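Reply to dn_fold:

You asked what the input looked like. This is it:
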Amino acid sequence: MTNATIHPERQKRVAKSLKFYSIAAIITGIWLLVLVVEMSLKYLILDEAPAWFQYIGQAHGFFFIIYCIACLDLGTKARWEPAKWLTTILAGVVPFLSFYVERKRRLEVKEAFQLP
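and this is what came back:
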């Protein structure tokens, strides 16, 4: 983006998508960490895992799909290149990386679209 003034309506659309993306990234990151703990317990520590452990992976999968939608929504409105979409989406499958990438993308978008 250049230093030109961004239309207020576009700023609103991008800000709304950025908020949705940030929330989705944090929730996905938390569920990914819970999934890592669950898998560590299931395969390394416990002899027999509780039946409810199966729902942790399903919950992470559900939130990951929402995260992908949020990435595509923000990427479309911010006019990201496909490589940026892909790297942002892939951050949702590496523990702790979604938190780092979320912060990085949030700062980039705020600066590019002159958001508070």
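The two ends are 16 Å apart (CA to CA).
Hope that clears it up.
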